[in-house]
Give the backbone structure.
Amino acid sequence: MSTIEQRVEEIKEDLDFFEDELQKYEYIIDLGKKLEEFDEKDKIPENIVHGCTSQVWLTHKQKDGKLYFYGTSDAIIVKGLVYMILKIFSDSTIQELKDIDMDIVHELKLSEVITPNRQSGVIGMMKKIKEYALNA
């Protein structure tokens, strides 16, 4: 099983593979197409991520002391960002998630690819994940 740091490293390597910002942008959009279908009944106010320009929903399930996250967005690029966040943080222990203290935007060098508004959306997703862990 990989740690959060290892999963961040994997995504960072994938992004670093691309020469220019447009290629990275297209790659992130492609990742969004891999998102699991999000249940319409979960598109409720308490699952909305604040700080995003577009609408983002994030839910979770708890199983065997771990949290698994599910999410979607109404914006195509943001779906890719949601996918990356879910891939990094799902299947982590509650303690790992409580202890997490990283600037994911900085770690993945997302500021080179996405607007400040999108960056604050990613930060919003992080806050929501942290909130779920603290309340678990």
